[in-house]
Amino acid sequence: MYEHLKIEERGTIAIMTISAPKSLNALNSAILKEMDDYLTHFDCNRFRCLIVTGDGEKSFVAGADISEMASLGMLEGQAFGARGANVFRKLETLHVPVIAAVNGFALGGGCELAMACDIRICSDNARFGQPEVGLGIIPGFSGTVRLARLVGMGMAKQLIYTGKPIKADEALRIGLVNAVVPQAELMDKAMEIATQIAANAPLAVKAAKLCINDEYDMAADDAIQNESVIFGRCFATDDQKQGMKAFLEKGKYEFQGK
Ligand code: CO8
What we know:
single chain; 47% helix; 258 residues; binds octanoyl-coenzyme A; globular; four-stranded mixed β-sheet; 11 helices; alpha/beta; six-stranded mixed β-sheet
């Protein structure tokens, strides 16, 4: 169905693999269009978690496609940046959690893609970096926005100003990834986390994601108020009633997302 995306469905977990092996899965307009289409039609009622990864053992995504960007003018550059940023924002605001399984190079737009996901895990051969200033541009798929939020202003500035990539263990140390595993175990680890998420009440997981995302930019009082309102809404769900009843009766309830 897609030329550059491989889609796999394992029960309530979906896996989107970006596949452009000749360019180490670099993101061009065609791939971004396919990602946009996939995310626009993603069924958040059917799936409870999405895993994003790259094809092969060398690269997650080696950035935006430099051969496509090389000849762009100012307005075209802006449009290309906006296209990537919009797709990544769709991923960030998708109503189910998204796990980036980073299987190699996550450079430029690749690092930005991983940062738009809720959770990042990587293989031990992964390399993260924002090399854009070495190409005469800045991170344009929201890297200047998300990197500082994830690893702090000082480290984000060092990574972006120097353009130097970091290895998996350093990415773990600065909090850019949650876990590093041997390459052969990467998808198992991603599936393990996805399965844990999928076993929980989907409406509650969705509510938690929206709260965490929205409250990040709110003043503390507004954020606390927001959480109270969303917390209250959980009590209008069947899953809350059945989940708590099952706990009290020492049983187990399979959440229905109602
Ligand atoms: N774009 C296009 N082609 C690429 C890219 C890329 N980002 N990365 C790799 N390729 C291609 C290479 O050109 C090469 O093609 P060919 O075989 O035809 O020569 C093929 O992939 C294999 O790559 P290498 O031979 O270079 O493999 P190495 O193992 O020697 O090196 C590296 C791997 C280190 C990953 C190296 O390929 C590299 O440095 N790639 C570029 C990384 C980079 O700078 N990424 C950032 C790009 S800029 C960006 O992402 C900006 C995002 C915001 C955009 C906003 C738009 C306005």
